[in-house]
Amino acid sequence: MKLFSQYHGKRMLVSGQGPLVENARELGFKNVVTVDELRTAFPVLDMVDLQRRPKTTPLPRNDFPAIEGVLLLGEPVRWETSLQLIMDVLLSDGNPGTGLAMAPYPHLPVLASNMDLLWMAEAKMPRFGHGTFLLCLETIYRKVTGRELRYEGLMGKPSILTYQYAEDLIRQQAERRGWVAPIQKLYAVGDNPMSDVYGANLFHRYLQMAQHDRAKELGAGDLWKQRPSAAQSCTSILVCTGVYSPKALGSTEPAQDGEEPPFHGHRDFSFSPELMEASHIVNDVDEAVRLVFHQEGWAL
Predict the structure, then answer these.
(1) Whole-angstrom Cα distance, residue 295 to residue 282?
(2) 221: Cα separation from own chain's centroid
(3) Do 252 and 193 form a contact (C-beta atoms < 8 A)?
(4) Which residue in 34, 112, 269, 290 has the most C-beta neighbors within 10 A?
(5) 17 near 74, Cβ under 8 Å?
(6) Cβ atoms within 10 A of the Cβ of 70, count?
(7) Shortest CA distance to 192 belongs to which of 258, 126, 145?
(8) Are 91 and 141 in contact (CB under 8 A)?
(9) Contact 59, 23 (CB under 8 A)
């Protein structure tokens, strides 16, 4: 998100939960409005919950600055409110207090992070992630307008941009420690075959192709202005303590017995089933760290 500086000064509607304004500002966005602030300014927009409907019709407002883009940081608490108001902003070209005869297209820029369809918590089955919320928004927009919702940027696993950024953070840490030799082997540990493993394998393929000047074929963005990658490989390690479990109902598992697994990735990423196959499968993170030590020839 920090790389999208052309939007840092624009008035962005931010969706998610937690300290949204503080999080957005840390990423560089200086002028944000939350969904709650928007519904307070225009209470007639939020009509699903009968208890929150205004008892009287408020006067229309014309002093609310136009919204210039949408920033989706994570799944919100009230999905119906966020879906409705985000749609209102997109269909009104940033002026939800007014109505337009025809929805503008292309619509306002949309930036989104965290594309996981599912994630694992204490429940026995995976929970809906922000990827599920994005799927809802995309489906509603297509149903209402007949057009596809477009993103100016998609961040988070399995996006190559995210792994490039992670590699640069690792490189900065190495430099602070005075390590001179470049880090050539990366390891990615995660519990989700469709995001963690798929992204790591996709980045590994990118690193291999980058050596032959064909990396752009994988969709690596032009935003990455850092020096060329020193890494030569990225090894995926899948743990069994989260979304992936060999025995859990609803688990996202790699392909078995020749049957193609369901594609849980984002709409804008092409599906290559072989990229869901982890280089290693271990029980937990402790075993993953021990595996890395063994691979590197380090003593425990």
Answers:
(1) 14
(2) 15
(3) yes
(4) 112
(5) yes
(6) 24
(7) 126
(8) no
(9) no
**Residue indicated by tokens 């989104």:** 112
Contacts (Cβ under 8 Å, ≥6 apart) of 65: 11
Kindly state the DSSP code that residue 234 receives in the 8-state scheme.
E
User: Phi/psi of residue 24, each to 5°?
Assistant: -65, -40
Please report where in the chains the tokens 């600055």 appear, as a residue: 65
Residue 226: pLDDT over 60: no
pTM: predicted TM-score of the whole model, two decimal places: 0.81
Do 57 and 44 touch, CB atoms closer than 8 A? yes
Distance CA 78, CA 35 (A): 10
* DSSP per-residue letters across 57-102: -PPP---SPPP-EEEE-S--S-HHHHHHHHHHHHHTTT-TTS--SS
pLDDT (tens digit, 9 = 90+) per residue, 110-129?
A: 999 999 999 888 998 999 99
Tokens 């840390």 found at = 26
Would strands 127-128 and 118-119 be described as parallel, antiparallel, or unpaired? antiparallel
Helix, strand or coil, per DSSP, at residue 11: strand
Q: How far apart are CA 284 and CA 109, in angstroms?
A: 39
Locate 174 and state its tokens: 């190495």
| Cα gap 35→45, rounded to integer Å | 11
pLDDT tens, 167-207? Answer: 999 999 999 999 999 999 999 999 999 889 999 999 999 99
CB-based contact 132:118 (threshold 8 Å): yes
